[in-house]
Fold DAGKc domain-containing protein.
Amino acid sequence: MSATVLVLYNPASGDSTAKEFFENHVLPYLNGNGIRPAAVVATEYPGHAGTVVTDFLQKHHGEVTIVLGSGDGTLHEIVNALLGRALDAARVITFALVPCGTANALFSSLFMSMSETPVVAYKLFSLDAFIARSRPKPLTLARTTLYEGPTQYIPCHGIVSVVVTSTALHASILEDSELLRKEIPGIERFKIAAQQNKTRWYRSRVKLSPVPSTGSVQVYDPDLNALVPFKGSLDLSGPFAYFLSTVNVDRLEPTFRIAPQFSTALPDGTSLDVVIVRPQRDPVFTSDTPQAREAFGTKVFTVLTAAYQDGSHIRLRYKENGDISEDNDGPTVVEYFRCGGWEWIPDEADEKARLVCSDGAILRVAAGGRAVCGAIESNNFLVYG
Ligand SMILES: Nc1ncnc2c1ncn2[C@@H]1O[C@H](COP(=O)(O)OP(=O)(O)OP(=O)(O)O)[C@@H](O)[C@H]1O
């Protein structure tokens, strides 16, 4: 039996061209391939996508394919709305993505943009896979729970990411860039927000947990250019400049390949790739002063710039004088782990360290609380890629 099709797009995503793209390209393309959607819906307000899909699944039983025109945020809303309503474990929802958002991390990770491919054809790649009845890929999810108080384990919030869960600089960037959305609809707003926050450090502790299926945490070794078993302590002390974990993606924008090992060395269990920058690994770090933060901000920028160069940031290393380049043989500037999950335990006096970003949505850890994130398998959600 073929799947029932829902066409859903967010007209406010990215540069607000989803409606036009669907009317001019997606709907005629589906029609031309004999696919008759059961409904075509444009979202009308934040959160609407989750309601539309929940209602649709109540009316249509069996397999459902959603042709989704949006960015990652709308996909995040749908997944969280469905899991929040205790989705039946046997229910399968498959997404054919049409990238209409700002960053489109998941689509860009599934389909590398080739300069010779016309834009319209590129944006229809996931739809092509659906029409060709290719086997869809299961999505891994990352569930974050916020706990109040250091010992009192009271779950107060659970949220699931499909792409990224972060704290530190990335969470600050996402919080600030949202204020720039109207003015700057493209990815440039992330760069401006990065400039605004590059000298911030975040006081926190981190605990990494092993991948359940292997019982180990892996770390990237630039000498071997591979992930190897991590033998160090799983408790990491701060301050942190950057802390970000991903599932399903090696990049957060078409060329920002922040988690390159995800595509270079595919995970063989349900896991997260974690990218960390801690200023105290810098051989010239002496103390936390405004001058030290300013100087380290330049190094953070070098790391982010290298991520745009096919993910070369993970090979950057320190020289004894603190200079960084791929040719050095000192400690890595970036710590790159593959693990099952992490705990982020922010210093309660550090307001900004209490921010957590889940696919662009911003959560706040209560003073004295912690965020706990773990990779989970989901058989409910698949994507054509
Ligand atoms: N009709 C609407 N008007 C205003 N906002 C909307 C509407 N429909 C949905 N939204 C909101 O738009 C937000 C952004 O959507 P989405 O994530 O799809 O695009 P994006 O942020 O531009 O892309 P990306 O997440 O890839 O960077 C979502 O969080 C959603 O709540």
